[in-house]
User: What shape does this take?
Amino acid sequence: MRAGALVAFPTETVYGLGADARSDAAVAAIYTAKGRPATNPLIVHVADAAALPELAVVPEAAARLAAVLWPGPLTLVLRRRPGAPLCARVSADGPTVAVRSPAHPVAQALLTAAGLPVAAPSANRSGAVSPTTADHVAAEFAADGGSGPTLILDGGPCPVGVESTVLDLSGGRPRLLRPGGVPRETLEALLKAPVEAAAREGAGSGDAAGPARSPGLLSSHYAPRRPVRLNVTQVRPGEALLGFGGTSGAVLDLSPGGDLDEAARNLFAMLRALDRPPYDGIAVAPIPGHGLGAALNDRLTRAAAPRPAR
Ligand code: TXA
Ligand code: MG
Assistant: This one.
């Protein structure tokens, strides 16, 4: 990584495709490997909250959340500190930076050993299903002619299974840009204030203090090749039914006992597992919206969204 290489590594949420966040060339290589639009900024990973003030302007609310929830699946969008040791590209040339401290012991060991701020998106091709095992990462970049990671660190299956919650604290009020591994309920309890969800793609927030919206809110994302249909009670011929809580007739069940944390761990691996013959579509049973259910429904809604021509 110090020499500019890409290294895939496990976090508690999903596998990341990491590179030196200070280096424009290394960060550019991430965008190339993923086929990611240059307008969609990356998350910078640090070992702990002590690294934050060098990178960003840290409001009191951010310090409070980091003190309780880091390391863990929470990303904070903050104003960049002038002179921060970060290339402009990692922020897509914007005034803010997203920072998180991952809890996975392999991620922690890597960050400590490298001694760098590490830019890392999920280690999948742009728009595809996020990887929760090292094999998923290898499969994503198998046919890319060598632009993928030089190394993949195998830390086994990711224990949370959905990406971090992205919270924007760069403006006046906290805004939830992406539901994820830390439930909104937890953030509201710690902030003692409501956390409003950011407007979806196209709506824009018009907040002059930061990016108008998180580019990650683009609608089709996290998508398997096959079409996905949600809140299904009646499966169609050719579809594979992905159940929740013991759905009858399910090919796979996210959590037979109805546990949302277990469902989050299984979501991406099961979407991959059903994205193959003999099935020509994936039908998903209804999933409750509380706790990690918000992140599950968010990812599934994007997986089911209309696809751009690829
Ligand atoms: O759990 C995770 O967050 C994983 C692991 C590897 O840490 N990473 C991840 O990265 O999910 P990625 O690139 O797949 O998603 C990052 C999200 C995107 O929606 C992006 O638009 C948003 O964070 N983001 C990054 N920087 C931002 C910024 N400065 N302002 C607003 N949104 C930002
Ligand atoms: Mg991603």
